[in-house]
Each structure stands twice: as C-alpha cells, then as structure tokens.
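Lay summary. Proteins are chains of building blocks that fold into shapes, and those shapes determine what they do. In this project we predict the shape from the chain. Here is one chain we studied, written as its sequence of building blocks.
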Amino acid sequence: MEKDPNKTKNKKKHFSKATKKSHYIAYENEDAARAALIEFCVYVCFLIVTLVVATSSRNISMYFFNKGIENLFLSREVNTSTHEASVRFAELATTADMWAFLETKFIMDLHGIDDRESGENAGGGSGGTDESGGNSTHRRRRSKDDKLIFLEQNLVLGPPRLRQIRVKENSCDVHDLFGRYFSKCYADYAVSEEDTGDLFKGTKYQTLNELGADSIWGEITTYRSGGFVRKLTYNYNENNQILSELKTSKWLDRASRLIIVEFTLYNANTNLVNNVKFIGELPSTGGVITRYSIQSVKLGSIFWRDGIPLFVTGIFFYLFICYYTVVEALEVKNIGITNYVRILWNFVDFLIILLAYFTLAYNIWHPIYVNELYKRFEKDPHEYLQLDTLCFWNLVYRVIFAICAFLVCIKIFKFISFNKTMRQFNATVNACFRDLLGFSVMFGIVFLAYAQLGLLLFGNVHQDFRNFKESLLTMIRMILGDFDYDGIEAANRVLGPIYFLTYILLVFFILLNMFLAIINDTYSSVKGNIRGGRNHLMIYLRKLLHKYCPKCCRPAAANDEERGRSTRDRSMSRDASPGSKRSVDKDNVSDFFEPVGQKASRSGNSDTAAIRRLTARVAALEDVIEQLVTDVDRTMRKVLPSRRKRGNTSQGSPSEGRNR
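And here is the predicted shape, written in a compact code that computers can read:
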C-alpha cells in the first residue's frame, strides 16, 4: 500500500510549524499575533510545570527541622567551668569552653537528659538496668533496638563521632631567644604540614575517601583532610566516659587545628535526613573559632517515593525539555551555529536545557544512592552513616534548579516586546552599553583600589576588612549606606575618617551620579524615537473573545468604528468655535468635508453613515501611516551609521577622491 504524498507533506508542514522558533515576538498582524499567543500558552504551561518541580526539592518541614536543632544546641547557653559564665556556642573562646560544650550541652541534649538527671546520675552511680523503672538516669529516649531517639521524633543514624585534624611537630621555626619557652612549634594548617600518623592517643587516622566525607570550608582555611576519628556510642554513660578520657589525655593540644562533632538524623514523619556538624577551628594563635553546618535532605525524589502528582508533573517537565531540545537542534541546523550564538534568547534556552538535563541525571542517581545508604545502615546500625555526598549533590541540584527556574521566569520578557516601556528599556540598554562598559572599567579601578587600601589599613583590627573578599563586600555595603564608621575610626583615628570621606565623595557623589547620568541621558534620547505602533494582539483577542462569547465583547470592526467616531467628535469639539466658519454641526457638516460654496442636500441618516465610514477609514489610515513612520525610523537608524562610516572614510582619503 503506497503512502499518500500529500499526507506526508502535510505532516512535515505541521511538524515544522510546531518546532519553529521565534527569535522576536512581534504582533504586526493577526497571523503573527495568533502564532505568538500559541507560543506564549505553551510557555506558560512550561513555566508552571518548572516552578512546581523546582519547589518540590524543599518544603517547610526542612526549615523547622534545621531550626529545632539550632535552637537546642546553639541558641541556649553553656555553663563554662573556667570563667564560671554561661555562653552560647558561637561565643566559645577556648578549648576548655569546647570541652564544656561537649561534656554538658552536646551530650546531654543529644540523649535528652536535663541537668537534674545528670546530677542524679553522678550521685547514683550506674543505676539499674531497667529503663521502665523509676530511676531517672534510665529515662532516655531509645527505640526498641537500643537506637538513640532524638527529640522524640528522630532516629540517630549511627553513633556520633569526633574527629580532629592536626599538624606535625616543629613544622615551623622558633627563634633561639624564645627556644627555652617553646620547645616545639606548630604551624598553621596546610596539607603538606598535616600529621598523618597511624594513631594518636587511641584514635586512628582516616582519609576523606575512607570516611566518605567532604572538605570543610572554615573561617580560616579549607580543610581537605579526614583526621583522627573517635567514635561514640548510643549509651550516655559510655559517651560521657569517652569524653572525660579524651579531655584528661589532652586530646586537643597545640597541634590541633580543627575539631568536628558530627551526627546524622532521620525523621520518619517527613522522610527527611539531617547531616549535623559542629566545628571548632583552633588557629595557631590560640582560641577557638566556632562554626556549624545543618543540612536537611529529602530522601524522596521526583521519580521515587514523592507522590504520583509530582511524578506526573516531572514527566511533563522533561517532555517539555525534549521538545525544546528538538526546537533548538532544528534552529541550529537552519541558521547555523554562528548566527545561533549571536541571539541572546538562544543562549538562555540552551542554558535552561543544559541545566534541566543535569537535574534529570541527579533524579536518576538519587534513588540509587539512597538505596545504598539503606543497605549500609541495615548491615551495620552501629556504624556512622556518612551523608556528606548526598548533601553536597542535593545542594548543587537545588541551586541548579533555582537558576533554571529563574531563567524560565525571565524569559517572559520575550513575550511582552509589544509594550512600549519594554522597547524603551531594550533600546536604552543597547544604546548605552558601550558607555557603561567604559565607565565600569574606571569604577572598577577605583573600587578595587579602595578595597585593597582598606585591607592594608584596617585588616588587622576591623572585622569587615579581615580579608580581600570581605573588604570588597564592605565597599559594596558602603555604597548602599550600610557601614560601621565607628569601627573604621577606632581602627585608625587619623586615616579612618579620611578614608571614609574620600570614598563617599568619590564613589557615592561622583561616580554613582555619572552612572545615573549616562542612563538618564540615553533614555531621554531613546524615548522620543520609540513610538507605539498598532498592537494586533488586542484586536485578535477581541475577535477570539467575540467568537466564543458575543455578548462579552464587540468585534474589532465595531470597536474601530467607535474609536473613529470618538476621534471625530474630539476633532469637532476642538476645531469648532461659536463664530467660526468651520463650526461643524448637524446643519453644515458637509461644509466640513466639502469646499466652501459647494453644497448639496443630503439626508441626515446618509450623512451620518458616510461620516462614520470615512472616519473609520481615516483612523485605519492613521495607523498605517504611523506604522510606516516607525518602519522608516528603524531603517534610517540602520542606514545612517553606515553612511557616516563611508563619509569618514572618504574624508580620510582625499587623494583617492581626486583620483575618482
């Protein structure tokens, strides 16, 4: 049976229409308005699906999960025995404070024991073994399999653990004058100076790969090592004894550069896991700098254990991505790769597709990796379950999906090009781009110079200038009016005020106003050249609405006639005066359209109908002329630069002109 060539041709025609891409959405006629409206409807569906899928990567329970842990461990104060004061985790200053946090706040809150129970434990010894008995030392939150239950709702996935990173002895030099005071020297942390011995006071060294952990981004530096690990247990008394032994043996000493306390949680109510780390950096100058990391992750994904509605929405999202992939591939084939990369919206579409395929890869990898975690925990429940890899890639996934959703939302500007304000914005940006580029170079030089000057002048004293990155951020904050003048003056009473005043004068009052002047001047010149031509989108929408609901909207022709009649009435009221020969009323309306002295008797009805038809034609003619003027202006803007270049060339070579 032979195929009908007409059917095949029609199929190809429909396929080409469905995959045809519009670089510029114009509403020049009703056909263009219809095509743009169809493309906009497809885009709106894609936008809704994208936002639903992107929002599914998080929920409000994740926030409250993190906030509950933060309130329990970090917001409440710790009683420090050294200074007999109560401080929060962020205010810990010494290794003694860190030990106080571990022995009291951390271990007691983790096991759900208050100060009263801790005191009874100290006075009553080990106590009985029946948790259901009356002894308060055994009213701890455990499950049936002797697993630790946290906040009555969360299971601790494997016992917590401590690990520290150390540096080698004599990794720096001490002057002979001070050698009798410091027999050993310990440098700042560096991978080359790290102590990687097998054992240190009963704790074994493990690499990052052996631990399955990620690097720690600290306040001082980034720590790319595993360290010496000490595992805890599910039992409060055993953990208390382990911490006491570590403290007594001075497990943290001058060679320690980082201590990490980490544990993982699982919440069955929301199917969430949380990776918790309390970090203390021990700089070579002494003291402790505390940080923390609390990351919650959904165990379900779009295609796995997250509901049928989300699964269907995810299928539609990736079908849209496949459709747009075909569209972009055909576009590259039709116009070539060189012309393709010159169009901004092509780059946006390509980036959206690229990011979407990465999210697809993650949604395929996620359930496979989570199943491996399940098997690992089932095999050995007393082994710490490392979630760093899952948390890292989940964070990357959420960031990429956020950027993808942002680009999809920004793409709506492509469909509102008919708006006069939008055209003025585009024209202003294009016209002043070169001026802004030149201004940015000058502004960047001044900006970087002041950032470096602030780092050198105040970096040792002021927190906002402690490194070059913070100094740059401080410069930006000062432009926005957020600055610490008292701190700058306290850092240097002479140069501080001079630095602040010169920066405000030069950057805020001069450079920033130059930036605004460039934009304002360009916008003023562009605004007069942009005219709002006739918009056929509204005409097409009125016809479409009248087709399905005649009572809701009159047809476009009737609206045009009404607009013509209102235009004629405004013209008559503007031109007519009580003593003028051109005063137009019902009796001398023919004088308005015919030469003076030429009169003919016509009926009132025919005059009214003729005037309405003529007014409608005049209104249509005005629209055509306005569109023609817009096209001529657009053409002249393209032609004049080339003529000016040719004129400059001819003036630059007079001998060539004489030869001609």
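What the prediction tells us: Confidence is low (pLDDT under 50) at residues 116-140, 573-604, 653-660.
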